[in-house]
Amino acid sequence: MSSGNDVVLIAGRDPRDEVSGGHSSYVRSYARAAVMAGFTPHIFCVGRNASTTETALGVIHRVRSPYRPFRQMLAAAHARPLAAAIVRFAAARTEPVLIHSFGVWGVAGVRAARLLKTKGVDAVLLQSSYTTYRDEALSQVRGGGAYSLSQRFRFAALSLWVKAVVEAWERRAYLGARLILVNYESVAQLIRKRHGDGARCRLMPYAAESAFFDEPPEPRGSGVPLIAIVSRHEPRKGNDVLLRALAMVKKGRIPFQARHAGGGRLLEDDRALATRLGLDDCVTIEGVVPNVRTLLHAADVFVLASREEQSGSLAILEALQSGVALVATGIDGLVEDLTDGEDALLVPPDDPGAIASALARLLTDEPLRRRMQAGARSTFERSFSAQPFASALGAIYREMLHLPK
């Protein structure tokens, strides 16, 4: 494929290293969409050793850095080696180079563009965002009241670091980009609030990585309904609220089994809370699992009790794809994706009674559950399949590079 079809993606960490959801899953989805749209992604990330590997995601360029990529908290420390590697890759080009960065890692894109300009190479900067780091950090602090003092201190310290250091890096990345791609109006509002009207946002469709490997779900069998929970164990996800809701459902003598997949700092805290609430016989908190689709395909009901999301939820998109009946809090981007009574039952955040009531309805009313399952799958097919996402991304890339449509 010609160099005119190459695009540089700055992922920060190797997207193959994080098997569960989160930042790497977001990057992998964009890489697969780029491939489907006819482009060749060159994904730049940092690691202990340098390497270049051709994969189904594109060409992954691991750049040696002395620092471990701890989320995006030290993104600027990696900007110099990342930018230098991108310049080595692109400096001989005569056509414009498209650099598409994700989150705070955009500071490396800004630096690379500046260096390429000194060599006579035009770099077109795109940025993708699913939150602002300051708002995410604050949501962790606000949701931490149910946990130990040491955990609350840790989230408060991270929030202070974001405020003092990371937010400035993010602003540099966002204001330096020609366009910021967002999948939710809720995210666009946060970005403009934090970084001003100079942040040029464009709304576009999105799909989870699993949408690129879609298999229609099999009909569900009878028996005790299975509730699937897929979320990280962190304060904003409201897992403490959800566990109290499940205890209410159990107290109502409604049969169910629940499986919770996801890692996070509060994993052991949530396991301890489940034990205190007497849920060990019906709730299994598994930690990180390699493939949540197996769990979702087997489940009858999915529940997400987030206090705040800023954007939408990858797990929600995967649940829609699997045709699971959904209960979710009506917050942030979730209300842009879901319609109460059609593909989900939406409830207020921080309300275990409301979550318990919605779960009880779905667990005890099979016709309602089946209707919600069909509605969920219909929403996926209409709004979150792979092709519309790939088509929209390809159109933006061609627009930025002035390529034929």
Helix/strand-derived category reads: alpha/beta
Distance between the termini: 17 Å
Order of helices and strands: EHEEEHEHEHHEHEEHEHEHEHEHEHHH
Tally of separate helices: 14
Radius of gyration, in angstroms, nearest whole number: 22 Å
Please give the largest β-sheet: 8 strands, mixed
Mean pLDDT: 93
Identify the overall geometry. globular
Helix content: 40-55%
Trace the largest sheet across and list its strands: 3-4-2-1-5-6-7-8
Runs in which pLDDT lies below 50 for 5 or more consecutive residues are none
Strand tally, please? Answer: 14
Q: Could you tell me the strand content as a percent range?
A: 15-25%
Structure description:
It is a single chain. With 405 residues, the protein is α/β, with parallel strands linked by helices. Helices cover 44% and strands 18% of the residues. It contains 14 helices and 14 strands. The strands form 2 sheets. The chain has an 8-stranded mixed beta sheet with strand order 3-4-2-1-5-6-7-8, with helices on both faces. Helix 2 packs across helix 3 (106-118) and helix 4 packs antiparallel against helix 5. The model has no long low-confidence stretch (mean pLDDT 93).
A few lines on this structure:
With 405 residues, the chain is α/β, with parallel strands linked by helices. It contains 14 helices and 14 strands.
